[in-house]
Amino acid sequence: MTDSTNTAGTLPTPTLHAESGMLTLEGLPLTQVAEQFGTPTYVYSKAALTSAFEAWRQALSGRKALVCYAVKANSNLGILSVFAQLGAGFDIVSGGELARVLAAGGRADRVVFSGVGKTRDEMCQALLAGIRCFNVESAAELERLDAVAGELGKTAPIALRVNPDVDPKTHPYISTGLKGNKFGVAFADAQSLYRRAAALPNLHIAGIACHIGSQLLDPAPVAEAAQKLADLVDRLAIDGIVLEHIDLGGGLGIRYRDETPPSVAQYLAPLLKVFEGRKEELCFEPGRSLVGNAGLLLTRIEYLKPGETKNFAIVDAAMNDLARPALYDAWHEVVEVVGREVPTQAYDIVGPICESGDFLARGRELAVAEGDLLAILSAGAYGMTMSSNYNTRPRAAEVIVDGEQAHLVRARESVSALFADEKPLG
Ligand code: LLP
């Protein structure tokens, strides 16, 4: 390990440093986090979360805009409270996420509710809380929402999530704006659905929304979608349907390995050009770009196992903790927490789970010994939220580092809690 660099160049987390052969996050050595809280542990940097949010805010300054953090990326109450205090809105996809936002001090009137399968209960919950907008994804959902709002004596603010049919050029599992996709309403149907919405008594048409995909590295497809939306908004105005906001979803990518994502300002520039001189409020739903590189997964090597064709470093984190490598073949940089004077060797970094798919990284050159700590980088987004208890593994602890202070924001699960709601038969 060389100071401040790894195989990909500079470390992707701005507040992560390699000083005298030792990794520190903000002012805190990661060895100390491991000693205090054990491993595996997700560790986030408050300063990195804050600066990621400020980058969005700055890039939008002078524009009427709301940044709604996509809760699905990381829904820990500690993380949500950091964003709530910074004045963020929130993009949710379930009643559970709404409950988390409210428990973390988020404002309901800054919540947008996305998702193709909202249940009646979730609609009630969101209407009673007074959320800012339902991003409606189908004709059937529109009818149901109107009925539920009527039963409660409420008016539901809505946007239609339209599918602009542009290719976001990203991994097929996380591309959402193409025709063959379950998301949004077809672009061609949008206008007539808006007319239908305008005729329903318990809806208030507030805006329009789209989200074309995730880990986007090219701003062009989003700008193309933005242009399509702007044109549609103009056509709706001719019909007398005037929208207050335009929601362009999330999607901005981050560097995991050697990607060169645009900065927030670069990403937004062509899109803001589309909306120059228009007065609608702009909304965004970024997840990954706010938390991805603000977090890492700290794990300890249990065993080194030389194999016939490759060497394995068996660690105490596994695919249940971080599913992205197994699920998407995703690359996460792996760094030694303490530099060691031993020759480097190529290792597959694997967990203890009984599946060959249980790997966190493959073929990485590391100088390590049994018992050493590793940091799996860029794990702040879709890490903990996609974790499971497979193999009856308690989920990891979560810690937010703020300067030299480490705050435990989720205790490690206990095994007894894992089956507390179960009982033997008879
Ligand atoms: N808004 C909507 C409607 C979404 O579906 C998503 C992500 C976002 C916002 C946030 O997108 P972001 O800014 O984070 O790209 N599990 C995958 C990512 C799935 C993204 C799903 N939707 C992964 O680990 O890469």
Report on the structure:
- The chain has 426 residues and is an alpha/beta fold.
- It folds into 2 domains: 16-45 and 292-418, Lyase, Ornithine Decarboxylase, Chain A, domain 1 (Beta Barrel); 114-286, Alanine racemase (TIM Barrel), CATH 3.20.20.
- Helices cover 28% and strands 26% of the residues.
- The protein contains 12 helices and 23 strands.
- It has helices at 30-37, 46-59, 77-85, 95-103, 120-129, 139-152, 187-199, 220-238, 264-274, 288-291, 324-328, 415-418; strands at 5-6, 9-10, 16-19, 22-25, 28-29, 41-45, 65-70, 89-92, 111-113, 133-136, 156-163, 185-186, 203-209, 245-247, 281-284, 295-306, 311-315, 334-336, 345-350, 359-366, 373-376, 397-402, 405-410.
- Strands 6, 16, 17, 18, 19, 20, 21, 22 and 23 form a 9-stranded mixed β-sheet that branches. The chain has an 8-stranded parallel β-barrel with strand order 7-8-9-10-11-13-14-15, surrounded by 6 helices. Strands 3-4-5 form a 3-stranded antiparallel β-sheet.
- Helix 8 (220-238) packs parallel to helix 9 (264-274).
- The chain is globular, with a radius of gyration of 23 Å.
- It binds ligand LLP.
- The site of ligand LLP has 21 residues, from helix 10.
